[in-house]
C-alpha cells in the first residue's frame, strides 16, 4: 500500500491481520501511538486518517492505502493544544496523552475555523468522550482544550508544569512497550484454562525452528520455558509456560501448539462457598499455605488457616468492653447504635500501559526494561532469582501502576527466562485481557460493622470484622486501619482472608482504605443521622487528628455543605451532599540518595526511582532550583544504576526524594562556594534524605520503607444528582481537603488529588470485577465490561491543601497519593443517602441496586 504518513510518502506491504496501529508502531517506528485496550474503547491509539480521528487498534492496516495519516508525531510539538497540555498539566503518566492530543487537535482546529470564544466543558467533554485516562487527569485536560480553543496558547511558549510534559505530548516519551532491541523476539504466556488442576506440559518438536543466537552452540535452543512452580494450577489464567518467536503472531501460534494436559481437581470460586467446612481446600498443607501470594503492601501479618479461611490480624483495645457496650446498645435499640454488613467488589488497577518487559540477557549481565513502580525492589529481586553478573532495570516512563507494578510479574519472569535461554532480547507485553485477569486487583470485601456513638462523648464502641476476597491471595488489611481512626474508645477489629480458585489480588492505592471508609464512614454518617447531629461536627468531636479537624472546620463553612438539602427529598431528580474522612500513614525511604553532577554547564540530578505519573522528576528539579534558580537542570530517573531511590508506592516518593534533592543542592552550593555552575564541570555531590526531627521515624523498616510519626488526613464533601427513575447517579461537585503539609509541586499535587477523586467515583459507581462463580474465569476482562470513569463522569472539583503540622518532617510535607482517594466512595454513599434516604451497602452502587434499595 502507499500512503502519506506524517507528511511524507510511505510504502508498506501489510499482513492480512495487521492493524493500522501494528504497522504504525512497528514498521514505521512511530511509537507515540499507544495501544492499550485493543478494542477501540480507550482511544489511546487515535490517529488521523484524512483528517478524521480513528482508533488504529481496530482499523485494518490495508485501509490506510491511499490515505493521509497523521499521528501525534505528525502534529509536531507546537500546536496550541500541545502547548496547553504542557502548561495546564493535562496528564500524569502520559500513556493516554497522544490519543487525547490527536483528538483534541481536530476539535480545536474545527472550533477555531467555525466558532469563537471558549467551548463549554460539556462541548469539550463530548468531543473527548471516546478517551479514557486511568490517572483521572480529566479536569486539566478539559481546561487545556478550553484554553487552547480560546486562543490562549496561539503564540506563546508554555511553561511546563512538569519536566517530562513536552515528551509526553509529542509521543517521544519511551515506555517499556515502545522498547525495541536488535534481534528481539516476542513472548507469549500460556495460561491455565481451569481453576484447579494438576497439569502436564508438553512442548512441540521444534526441529528446524531453533531460535538460538549462537550457531556454535550444539544444543538447539527452543522458544519454550516453563513458568509454573510444581504441577498444580489454582486459578484460570495462571501462567504455566511461555513461548517466544520472531513476531507476536508467530508467538501466539506457537503458544497454541503447547499441550497442557489437565487432571481437574475440585475447585471453589465463590467466597461464601469457599468458607464452608466441606469446601475443597485450595492450599491443603502448611507448605502450600506458606506460598500463597500476598495482596499486602510490604510484609503481611502472619495468620492461622482453617480450611480456606485464613485469620489475619486481629486487634482489640478493651475489646470485651466494646462487645458488651455494643450488645447492650443493640438490646435497648440505642439511637447511636448502627450495625450493617457492607460489601465491595474487586477493583482492577487497569493502568493504561499494560504490564510489559523486555529482557536482554548477556554474558555480562541482565538488562530488564520493565513497566514498574519499584525499580530498586526489582533490581534486588532479579539479582536474587537469577544471580547474573549484574542487573540493570530500566523504566524511563511508566504508564500508570496504582500498586499493581510492585513485584517481579509474570511478564518479567517470562521475558528473562526466555532471553536467558535463547540469548536474544525478548519482549513480553500483557494483552488487555491478561491485564484485567492476572495483574492483581483491590480485593473484594465483606465487612460486618457495629458502632455505638454519642453526640458529645465520642465513639463509645466499634467492632469491624472483615473478610477479604482476593482469589488465591491473602493479606487483606481493612479492619486493621481502624486502629488509626476516631480516638481510643473500646474497639475490636479482625481481618481474615477467604481464598478461592480465582486470580490473586495485589495492593491498590491506599490498600484496605477505601473498603474501610466505605463501611465506617457510612456508619458515622448513619449515627449522625439517627442522633440528629451534623455529620461533620460529629466527626470533629470524635476525631483526635488535629490536621483533619482543621479540614472539618473549613468544610463546615463551604456553601456546598451548608446548603445541603434535608434527607430525603422527593421528585425524580434528587440532589444530595455527603461527607467522609480518611487518614493514611506517613512513609518515607530514608535511604534515598540524589546525586548532582555538573555536566556541560548543566546540573544533572540522578536517583534510581521511576515516575509513574506522580511528577517525581519535577519534585527533584524544583528542589534543586530553590538553590540554583538560574541553572539548567536535567533530571534522570528510571535507571537502577543511579544511587538508591524510592519505590513509587505508599505515598513515599515525594517525602523521600524532595528532602534528598534539597540536601544535594545544599551540598553542591557548599562545594561551589560561590563559583558559577558553568565553572564546576565534573563536580559531583550525593544528597541524602535527612532524618525527621525529634527522631520521629518509627522503627519499622521493610525494604527501605520507614513509617514516620503522624497521619495524613483528608475530608471529601461530595454532591450527587440521583435519577430515581433510572437509578443513575452523577457526581456533580467534590471538595477535597488534604492535610499532608507543605506541597512540593502544587499543579501535580492537585492533579493527583483530582485523579484520586475520579478513581474513587469509579469505585463507587462503576468498577466491578466479575468472575464466573463456577470456572473462575474473569468475565470483565475488557474495557467494555470493566467500566472506568470517563471524562463525562468528571465533577467540578476544588482541592484545598492544609499545609500545617508537619514541621518535624524535612521539607515540611509528606505524600498524598493514597489519602486523596480513600474516602471518596464513602462520601458518594453518604451523598446518595442524603438525596434518597437509601443507605447503599454494596459497591458499586449500580442502578439496579439503587432502584431495588429505594423500593424497599
Ligand atoms: Fe491518562 Fe495516565 S495520564 S492514563
Automatic annotation (TrEMBL):
Alphabetized SMART domains for the sequence: Ald_Xan_dh_C (SM01008)
Alphabetical keyword list: Iron, Metal-binding, Molybdenum, Oxidoreductase
Chain segments carrying region Disordered: 1-20, 640-660
Residue ranges crossing the lipid bilayer per the database entry: none
UniProt key word Membrane: no
Ranges of residues in domain 2Fe-2S ferredoxin-type: 1-75
Pfam families associated with the record: Ald_Xan_dh_C, Fer2, Fer2_2, MoCoBD_1, MoCoBD_2
MF terms (GO), sorted A to Z: 2 iron, 2 sulfur cluster binding; iron ion binding; oxidoreductase activity
DNA-binding among keywords: no
Family: Belongs to the xanthine dehydrogenase family.
PANTHER family from the UniProt entry: ALDEHYDE OXIDASE 1-RELATED, XANTHINE DEHYDROGENASE
Protein name: Xanthine dehydrogenase
Species of provenance: Herbidospora galbida
